[in-house]
Structure formats: structure tokens, C-alpha cells
Amino acid sequence: MLLKKAIEKIESSKAFKDFKEENPEFYLAHAFTIIDKIQQEWQVGYYGKKRDKVVVFITGETITKSPEEEIFKKPGHHVKELDLKKVKLTLETAINKAEELVKKKYSAEIVNKIICILQNLETELYNLTLITQAFNIINIRIDAKNGEVLRESRQSILGLKKS
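RE: above sequence
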């Protein structure tokens, strides 16, 4: 499902309308999906600065809402609003760019799964984590406005283990 359609489905649901009526300060913060041969449902997060929490709505047969959760961020920072008007690149285009980069720089890698987060860090961007058959993680950040690769790195999943 296209992200804009997923957000329309969420924001027109009774679950979202009831939530928003009680929590008008929450705003769109991120959209998350996993691609493992096929794209999974979208998980769309709304952030409330006052309570410093996020609520996630999940698309599926029906819209489901998670309880408020802590959000992963740097201490003392607030989550920036995700402005969809600034997102010009589709998820498919971002993934194609990432796959081209992998073919060029990491040609021996075979990607098994892609974790996608659309968020506003320094700008609206696709934060893509590609998990490979060789147990490597390739992280690629792509500007959602112009398609520029902002950052990319590769590391072994095995190297993530804490002692």
C-alpha cells in the first residue's frame, strides 16, 4: 500500500479520530514498514511533545493503535514533525536508489530484507536498513525531496553483539 493511502486510511479511521480528539497535540512523526519479498503493513507514528511519547497506528484489515510508548531519540531532543508535502520521492524510488548503490559498492551482498523508516532528522529522509544474506547491515539515508544519498554504511550484524 502506498504511504499516502495508508495515512489517509489511518486518519479517516474512528480509532485515529477518537485519539486525535483526546490528543490534539500529537503530530505525524514517522512511517515504518518492512519489505521481506513483499511489503508489510505500514506502521505510522504520531508524537506528543508534552508527554514525549509516540502512538503507532498499524494498517491492516482494520486500523489498530498501540499504547503510548517511549521513543528512541537523543536525550533532551524532541521528534520533528514529518511533513509529507516535502516528500517527493516514493518508497519504491528510494529502494531502487539503495539497490543501485548496493550493486555498485557491495556487489557481493544479497539483500534479504529491507527495513524502511520515513522520518525527519535533518530533513525528511528515508532511513533504509538492508539486511543481507552474509549477516551484514547496510544503512542508507536518502533525502526524500531530491533522492540524494546523505549517508551510507555497512557493518556486520555479528559486530553488534555487546560483551
